[in-house]
Amino acid sequence: xxxxxxxxxxxxxxxxxxxxxxxxxxxxxxxxxxxxxxxxxxxxxxxxxxxxxxxxxxxxxxxxxxxxxxxxxxxxxxxxxxxxxxxxxxxxxxxxxxxxxxxxxxxxxxxxxxxxxxxxxxxxxxxxxxxxxxxxxxxxxxxxxxxxxxxxxxxxxxxxxxxxxxxxxxxxxxxxxxxxxxxxxxxxxxxxxxxxxxxxxxxxxxxxxxxxxxxxxxx
Length: 219
Description:
Helices cover 19% and strands 32% of the residues. By secondary structure, it is of the alpha+beta class.
């Protein structure tokens, strides 16, 4: 069971007309001053706090896709603190939780069939909002990982190079800093055709989405 936590008036709107709002990763990254703000949202970043000299061939040094080093090498020395951040392909997110998290609002509803709900929402985004969804999934968010574990040694650098995959890494959509761990978040992710821009916010009204949910006495 998963919970969507929000203000009671929005819970009522969901049960009345099936209103769902999904937002882009970049939208959450820029929500300064909001409890949902996450400046690292969508970043595939690497941090370096060196304990020893490391040396990497230029073409193997992890960089955003639009930056390349051809030939030569990169050398970092002890004491260096470097943050290299790239951006994953933007996507639409619908965030839920394993718990009724009051900090997001005193109302909630329970998603009893997450897989069915996600499939229906993907269909609704295509039919009702003309969003060209090419991939969707739901998964539990992991916390920590490369978002806050800096590389310190040559062996850690070598392992990082081996683990980097080209293209979209689905797991990058489900990683957040450990300071958010109390949220116990799950996410529905909707990746759009790369030929279109991802809007900040998309609203859909589909009453059939309520068929996958249950009321839980909080809105």
